[in-house]
Amino acid sequence: MNIQWFPGHMQGTEQFLEKAVLCSDLVLEILDARLPVSSSNPLLDTICKNTARIKILNKKDLADSNITKLWLDYFKKLKNCSAIAITGTNISDVKKALDFSLNKIKKSKSRRIRIIVVGIPNTGKSTIINTLAGKKIAKTGNIPAITKHQQRTELKNKIDIYDTPGILWPNLEDKDGAYRLAVSGAISDANIDYNDIFYFASEFLIEKYPFLLKKRYKLCNNFILDSTSLLKKIGLSRGCLKKGGIIDYQKVSKIFIKELCSGKIGPISFETPVKEVRIQN
Ligand SMILES: Nc1nc2c(ncn2[C@@H]2O[C@H](COP(=O)(O)OP(=O)(O)OP(=O)(O)O)[C@@H](O)[C@H]2O)c(=O)[nH]1
Ligand SMILES: [Mg+2]
Prior knowledge:
Layout: H1 8-22, E1 26-32, H2 43-47, E2 52-58, H3 65-77, E3 82-85, H4 91-102, E4 113-118, H5 125-133, E5 151-155, E6 159-163, H6 175-184, H7 194-208, H8 210-216, H9 227-237, H10 249-261
Parallel strand pairs: 1-2, 1-4, 2-3, 4-6
Antiparallel strand pairs: 5-6
The structure holds guanosine-5'-triphosphate and magnesium ion.
The site of magnesium ion has 6 residues, from helix 5.
């Protein structure tokens, strides 16, 4: 799958980010806990070189908790890297992440602290800010590119926190990474082929989480679990049929990916630290 998705507002955001990071005390990089590598933006390595940066592995409720632990251990061992895993709607998690992050910077009593929240689309940036503020300040939603402009929110204790639009980098060259981003909801519907993603995701789940598939789709013990049989089985049981009783494969694929993305199949991680290559820090 060749995804080229870098709309105009993202180009502007990249330039804005460079400037905004320069005058920030702290950068919160919101990653998707299920795919901490693919959901990181390599542009940030250069943009944030001289500013404290914390990796927030958000949506931990949707990730495999054993693998999230491995990620936190992995990040702990990296030089100059701090990471914490949270559920963005959980107030105590989010407060803990803020305290953890503030502990990494020098505070001045006389000046307000500027925190910028960055990340690719749909990782939960605005949700985290709303949770911290205790009210719905920023618009959120389970489709990418909800936030279109930067927005400042004043928190207690002289803290200003800035929400930013999600940005992807210009070319998603890593094919599997692009698939994972699509599964996580970071890429808009118009740019993806759900049937293509279904095959990627189902093959991964058949290998790593067959028990979750069996449970969710009520597959009997002698069901031969391969992607095409699974697609047909879900299509028939959900009544996704076109005229003449033919299975609507696009429709079934979309249902499957939406269920996977929202955690209905179960807590799943798409990346483990073992094959990690890209994160530098
Ligand atoms: N299960 C779960 N869902 C979350 C969590 N955090 C955010 N979400 C959901 O993820 C979706 C995206 O959240 P947003 O806060 O809009 O994400 P964003 O990063 O601001 O997205 P953009 O503005 O498009 O870049 C929404 O449906 C949220 O309810 C979390 O920790 N767990
Ligand atoms: Mg947002």
